[in-house]
Amino acid sequence: MLFRSDMNAAWLKKHALIVAFVAAFVIVLGAVVWLQQQASGKKAEIDAALAEQMSELNHLLQTKPAPAKENIDILKQDRAQVDHLYQELLANVAHSRIHSPPDLRPVAFLQMMASQLAKLRQAAGENVKIVDGFAFGFSRYAGTPPTIPARNLSDEDTKRVVTLLVKQLRAIEKISSLLIESRVDDITQIRRSEVESNNGSDSLDVPIVNDPRALYQTLPFEFQFHCTPEALRDFLNSLTKSDWFFAVRKVQVTGEPPPPTEKPGATPPGGAPAPAVVSQPKRTHLAVTVRVDLIEFPVKPAGKAETGKPDA
């Protein structure tokens, strides 16, 4: 028995490589069989999920959820009407865009600003009170000496900043002129959205909005002034009649009505009635804050019928 055991051990030592190969093959075969069983289970789950989805698809195909041809025709007609209305809107308002002079440099803008502000101060005169040196929303640039805009910027950014400043200047000039023509009592403050990063005393915490599809641009402003109800009504009416597209976002009004008229004194017994006291009518004095946006639409290029068309 001992001799036979020694022979087996000797045989195993002699054929150790074959034994190791057979053992490895058996292990690999077991792993393959296990993976195949796992894959078969996954395949059954996938087949069941696919069968369920195919059943849902067949149900949807039988119910015919797609829109009817009549509904598609209605949508096409609505799209055509919207496009027609939009083109009419562009025809009415796009011509009133504010154009900046070509290749306007920052120093030239300061000269333009100084000239426009001087005209506004002269137009206000003594009828509309403004403080000395009132900069109409441009105190950041109208100091002594004036501050040059768009400093240390690239040519492209400089052109963008100066173009926006020109638009803001002309919009403020237009609205201020309407206030002066409406005979408000005074203009106390004008604020505008900053086009540069630093905030000034006249900055308005409302961003300039550019529509993602380039359909319009919105320039926000805020005006604070005192006036009578009649002057406020005239100013708001003049905004709606302006050639430029102004949208009034908010009107905040505070003030007190005039005191009631004093009644005449009682007539003493047997005496003549006391004469009525004639006094000048007192005006209602309002403190008004108006948030107004200038909305600009793009000019439709000639020969491009689809330019500016709203998406379906």
Short description:
Helices cover 46% and strands 14% of the residues.
How would you characterize the overall build of this protein?
By secondary structure, the chain is α+β, with helices and mostly antiparallel strands. The protein has two domains: 20-65; 97-256 and 284-296, 2-Layer Sandwich (Alpha-Beta Plaits), CATH 3.30.70. The protein is built from six helices and five strands; from the N terminus they run αααααβββαββ. Strands 1, 2, 3, 4 and 5 form a five-stranded antiparallel sheet that branches. α4 (106-124) runs parallel beside α5 (155-181) and α5 (155-181) crosses α6 (229-240). The N and C termini lie far apart (95 Å). The relative contact order is 0.10.
Order of helices and strands: HHHHHEEEHEE
Total discrete domains: 2
Under the CATH scheme, which class of the largest domain?
A: Alpha Beta
* Structural classification: alpha+beta
Question: Layout of SSEs?
Answer:
Layout: H1 2-14, H2 16-63, H3 69-93, H4 106-124, H5 155-181, E1 186-192, E2 209-210, E3 217-227, H6 229-240, E4 246-256, E5 285-296
Antiparallel strand pairs: 1-3, 2-3, 3-5, 4-5
Helix pairs in contact: 4-5, 5-6
Keyword list:
312 residues, alpha+beta, Alpha-Beta Plaits, 2 domains, elongated, disordered C terminus
